[in-house]
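Good morning C.,

I know you're traveling, so I'll keep this short. The sequence:
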Amino acid sequence: MAKPSIWRIKAQLFVLTKQTYTTRAMAKASITYKDSGVDVHANTRWVSTIEGAMRSTYGPRVFSNRHGGFAGLFRLDYDEQLFRRNYKRPVLVGCTDGVGTKVLIAIEMKKLSTIGIDLVAMNVNDLICCGAEPLFFLDYLAVNKLDPKHLRDVIIGVADGCRQAGCALLGGETAEMPDLYRRGDFDLAGFAVGVVEHNRIIDGSRVASGDVLIGLPSSGVHSNGYSLVRAVVKRRRGQLSRTYDGLGESLGDALLRPTKIYVSAVRAVLQAYRVKRVITAMAHITGGGLKENLARALPSNCDATVLRSSWQPPPVFDWLRQKGVSRAELFKVFNMGVGFVMIVRPRFANGVMRALRRAGEEPFLLGQITRGGGRVRFR
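The tokens, ready to paste straight into the viewer:
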């Protein structure tokens, strides 16, 4: 066999040397996930940071939930006598909502401890309208960059809201998306699951003429209409740090008051009347105000007459009116101080209001149901 020439050997060495340098150059030029703006190790630190907040919401029905698992487990029934919760014909109830642009005010105020409560409230207040018991909650946090120290207050607020609602913060998702969110920005969404006995569902079909409207006060703007709020602040050069006449607190604090959670109040009434079905409908007053949200609780043959003199809106709404938002627009967009409405049989109205007061609420007679066509009228 002929031996390879010296030139062939040199050529092979050149090719091998070139391949080596190319491989090294490619290694130096490689792109990592962290280079794209996402730090997977930050997520590991984040999970450890929020573990305590999550576990503070667990009850006996959270089933062997190993933190960091792929999904949470929750017992629908629980047989221990102290916590006995067994259903005959359970119907699961689910809903989802977010906080909206209220997060931008929280970011500007550098106060993130309350919007987590808002997130839970916007979900569970919807869920209880059909008489359901909140079981568990999941959150979704989308960020530019995951900073566990900076965002910890958000999840602490979510856990606080879950404790107020008596449900477990069973899990969640945090997504780093630097191409979608500006530095410092983030968004929140949540998902609640509850349960109600089939024969105890409250759907508005039993509402009848003569029923009474009972209103529960809101804590302020809650979590709707903040695009309008922010437009007013910007165009009228409002200062979030300033305490305006009549507010009793800074404008920013008034706007960041967390959405009130009505779960314990509704539960108090349902437990006081375990057999009699005294509540015929309920409405969470969110975007669209009293007119749109009350109409959602009415059958097609009934109207709701709302007495405007029966309550006094919080001062933050007066500030918005003074800055140029008409009264009609305020009632169309905001809750105007009425965060939740129960429609009850007239003979039980006083008893329901007593149960609500024992639960720490300040209920008031808001109006009455009359025959009509599914409309809401103000008087």
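Safe travels,
E.
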